[in-house]
Amino acid sequence: MPNYYWVFIEGRRFYSNQLQPWILPLERNVTIINYTVIRDRYTVRGRDMVINDALSPQEIERLTRRPVTRVSVREVKKPEEAGGGIDEVRIYRPQIKQEETAPKTVLKREEAEQKIGPVREDRPEEVEVIHRQENSLLERTQRLELERLKRQAEEEARNAPPQDRQKKLIEVQSRLEELKKKHEQEKQEMQKRQAEEKKVIRKEDLKRKTDEEKR
Fold first, then answer.
1. How far apart are CA 32 and CA 3, in angstroms?
2. Which of 111, 137, 152, 164 is 20 to 30 A from residue 22's alpha carbon, by CA?
3. Annotated region Disordered: where (predicted)?
4. Taking the CA of residue 113 as centre, how many other CA atoms within 13 Å lie in the half-sphere pointing to its CB?
C-alpha cells in the first residue's frame, strides 16, 4: 500500500468530531509507519459478532485523556429504529443479496471531470491557513517524537549493565541524529509540496477572476 494512502492523527485527537484539521502532513507518513507497531487483534463472539480488541478502553483513555463511555449494542429490525442513545447503540443489519451488476454507460475520464467538476476550490488565503496548520502539526509531532525517543533510549541506557552504558549512549545519540535527519527531510518535502500548491492555487484564482471579469 502506498505511503500516501495512510492518514495519521495524534492520539489525543481520537475523539474529535472533525478530524480533517488534525491530519498530519503526508510527509510524516514514512517515519510514522516505520515507528508504528500494528495492533490488529480481533475476536469473534457468538456466530457473527467481530470485536476489535486491539486497543483497550484504558489505552484510549490514556491517549485522549478522556473517559471512554461504555454502551450496549442492540440490533433492531427496522432501519428507522437505528441510532444512538445515552447508554446504547442500535444497529440495523439488512440481509444483502449479491447481484451481478454493471453500469449501463461508462464515461471517459475527461467527460467525468467535466460533469463532476472540481471537488473544492481553495482560495490563496484558505491555502495559507491550511499550510500554517500543517507547519504547526509537523513541528509539534516531530518535537514530541524526539522527546519520546530520547526518554525511551535513556531508560534503555540506565537499565543496561555498567560496562555497556557508554555503548548504549552512543547508540542513543546515533538514533536521535538519524531521526533528526528524517525530520529535516520531511520538512523540506512539505515545503516543496506547499510551494507547488500555492502556484496551482494562484493560477486557478487568477483564471477565476479573469472569467468573472469577462461576464
1. 10
2. 152
3. 152-215
4. 3
183 within 8 A of 31, measured Cβ to Cβ: yes
Asked if the model's pLDDT at residue 202 lies above 80, the reply is: yes
**Mean pLDDT of all residues in 29-53:** 83
Span 102-119, average pLDDT: 63
Give the model's pLDDT for residue 49: 75
Residue 162's CB is within 10 A of a number of other CB atoms, namely 6
- pTM listed for this prediction: 0.68
Q: Name residue 117's amino acid.
A: G
- Strands 88-92, 72-76: pairing is parallel
Name the grid cell of 97. 443479496
Domain ranges of the chain: 42-60+67-89, 120-214
Q: Are 70 and 80 in contact (CB under 8 A)?
A: no
Mean pLDDT (the chain) is 85
CA distance readout (Å), 183 to 20, 27, 79, 98: 22, 9, 48, 48
The pLDDT of residue 140 is 96
Q: Check if the beta carbon of residue 3 is closer than 8 Å to that of residue 25.
A: no
Residue 55 one-letter amino acid: L
CA distances from 7 to 21, 24, 70 (A): 12, 7, 26
Structure-model confidence comparison of residues 96 and 193, the more confident one = 193
